[in-house]
Design a protein that fits this description.
Chain lengths: ~200, ~400
């Protein structure tokens, strides 16, 4: 008979869950140059990311965090906090949830949702840094618009799914998990689905 | 890595009782089809009927009132589905009484089936529960009427252990002319269950919650009560459930209830003592906790507790690393994004529902295991709280700044 796996998720995820890196000690965030907070407790996950920045080079020198979240949220933010050190603010801003998931050795589909919060909070912290340093012009709004709040699926994700082959609402759901929780985004998602099908494939 | 292996998830499933295992190993040699007339078949038939007698005796029923089914879920589906029949040929008068009543804290196999029946024209009314998970009897009285054909209320809740007063409820239901079903999967074998004193028309049993095998359950259908099979096309179970009998499972279930009858006396007090040690130990060593479920009308084996500022899946997996198996009401552990519907129904807020842990003990649980949990758990909660945005002892948490 098969034996139980060592762990519910990948070994890398396990390591970061058991020994999370760069946890913010205490509550004082004053010594940091940027603070970002995302998520909410009612949904079961919340994330705070704080950064220190070399202002000459605009490079992140330290990144710490706290979370109310599950194993995937803890591990993904732990690995993200290691990844961003030494990167420029611009580079760090563009780290995608996919990169984090790959670095973790993969995540089950239903756990992607839990891992996106870390880089959202990181982007909030970077924007917070710009705001504090009189560089409001550099504040990057989330260019993507979240369509499905429950699964954090944006119009960009919908576009990607269409480009990867989704043609029906059902196929869109299969690829993105969009609309699989409360379902309120269905109408808006269907309009976007038609729009991107038309733009890219003329149908 | 872990010092001990502690299984405190007996409401999810239980290990086979050694006597059940022995019985089933012996039964593996017995391959005859109980429907066959030759000696192989007669041997299987005799054993199946013996198991039926054991199950019937255990709940105070007669043998003909016991139908073996594939699971508790199948039993519940069967009962609820009686009331969606388009004709009144099987269930006389069912067209007149096409509403059913259930509660907001049922197992998903009842809730989802009810929802589906709703799509097929049945009117479903859901009873609220109070902060302890008890159904509101006044609300029930208001809902009952000549439109209601069936009331389905679980006897013991799987998540919080709260017990309902099925006897009183059944009297109210019968006075209104409806039939009464109780999902007793978590109650049978843990508290005394007698179908006559409960006064129910249907009652659901599952083997794997009481140290029997998976894939076998039983449905009690009171003699004379209208019935229609969910799985048709065979004469098995007196035409009430088609499909060749799961002889191995049936013998396992028979042995499981036999062992329960022997071992239940005294077990309730022993588990209650362990639960009090666990409860008091958690209360004394961890701040900002909230116990879920009824303080007294509850399964002795089940303790459900929420930890402020901590997400349940993280607790579960840190405990798993220490060899301790429990479950959580957190959305993250369930594959959905919603926390426990049971806790939400009791009025617990979503954050505390996400941070809930269920300890469910069994016949093999010991004081030593409880002590081990009490040694490990406070450190884990402290550790998670130290990295939590949602917790500062005695103060505002980071999120509120």
């Amino acid at each position: 008979m098969l034996q139980a796996g060592d762990w519910a998720y990948s070994e890398t995820l396990k390591e970061h869950f058991m020994n999370p890196k760069n946890i913010l000690q205490g509550e004082n965030t004053d010594e940091f140059d940027g603070v970002g907070m995302e998520g909410n407790l009612q949904c079961g996950d919340q994330m705070m990311v704080v950064i220190k920045v070399d202002k000459e080079k605009e490079v992140i020198t330290d990144c710490q965090w706290k979370t109310y979240g599950c194993a995937s949220a803890i591990a993904s933010t732990s690995i993200l906090s290691e990844m961003v050190k030494g990167r420029t603010l611009d580079q760090a801003f563009h780290i995608s949830p996919k990169e984090v998931a790959v670095a973790l050795g993969g995540l089950p589909d239903h756990k992607i949702h839990c891992s996106v919060l870390g880089d959202k909070a990181l982007r909030a912290a970077i924007n917070n840094y710009y705001t504090r340093n009189g560089q409001e012009d550099k504040v990057k709004q989330e260019q993507a618009k979240v369509i499905c709040q429950c699964m954090s699926i944006t119009d960009h994700d919908i576009e990607d799914a269409v480009l990867e082959g989704a043609r029906t609402y059902f196929e869109l759901q299969e690829r993105t998990k969009l609309g699989t929780v409360c379902g309120q985004c269905k109408d808006e998602a269907e309009v976007l689905l038609e729009k991107f099908k038309h733009i890219h494939f003329g149908v | 890595m872990a010092d001990m292996k502690v299984y405190f998830d007996n409401n999810a499933t239980t290990p086979l009782h050694p006597e059940v295992k022995k019985e089933m190993i012996a039964a593996m040699e017995m391959f005859g089809n109980p429907s066959s007339m030759h000696s192989y078949g007669r041997e299987a038939r005799a054993n199946v009927e013996n198991a039926r007698r054991q199950v019937a005796d255990f709940i105070g029923a007669t043998e003909r009132e016991i139908i073996f089914v594939g699971s508790g879920s199948e039993a519940n589906n069967t009962v609820l589905s009686l009331f969606v029949c388009g004709s009144s040929q099987c269930i006389p008068g069912s067209k007149m009484r096409s509403s059913i009543i259930t509660t907001k804290i049922e197992h998903p196999c009842v809730l989802e089936t009810s929802e589906c029946l709703g799509h097929r024209g049945v009117r479903v009314k859901y009873l609220d529960v109070d902060q302890y998970g008890k159904v509101d009897l006044d609300q029930l009285a208001g809902m009952l009427g000549d439109d209601v054909g069936l009331v389905s209320i679980m006897m013991a809740n799987n998540e919080i252990g709260t017990l309902q007063d099925i006897e009183t409820i059944a009297k109210m239901v019968h006075a209104s002319g409806a039939l009464m079903h109780t999902d007793a999967v978590q109650a049978v074998g843990k508290v005394p269950v007698d179908v006559r004193s409960l006064g129910v028309d249907f009652l659901t049993i599952s083997a794997h919650k009481i140290y029997g095998p998976k894939g076998i359950g039983a449905l009690f259908v009171k003699k004379g009560v209208p019935y229609c099979p969910l799985i048709r096309g065979g004469h098995q179970e007196l035409g009430r459930r088609a499909g060749t009998e799961n002889t191995l499972g049936i013998l396992g279930l028979g042995k499981a209830v036999e062992m329960r009858a022997l071992e239940m006396p005294g077990e309730h007090e022993r588990l209650l003592e362990l639960k009090n040690v666990l409860r008091n130990g958690i209360e004394n060593s961890i701040d900002d906790i909230h116990f879920n479920g009824h303080p007294t009308d509850s399964l002795a084996s089940t303790l459900n507790v929420s930890f402020t500022g901590v997400e349940g899946e993280a607790i579960l997996l840190y405990l798993d690393l220490e060899g301790i198996a429990v479950s959580t009401g957190s959305a993250c552990a369930s594959g959905s994004l919603d926390p426990s519907h049971v806790l939400l129904a009791t009025g617990v807020d979503a954050e505390l529902a996400h941070g809930s842990i269920r300890f469910s003990m069994g016949r093999q649980s010991t004081r030593q295991e409880v002590d081990y949990i009490l040694n490990v758990l406070p450190k884990i909660i402290e550790r998670i709280r130290n990295m939590s945005t949602a917790y500062i002892k005695g103060g505002l948490h980071a999120a509120s700044r």
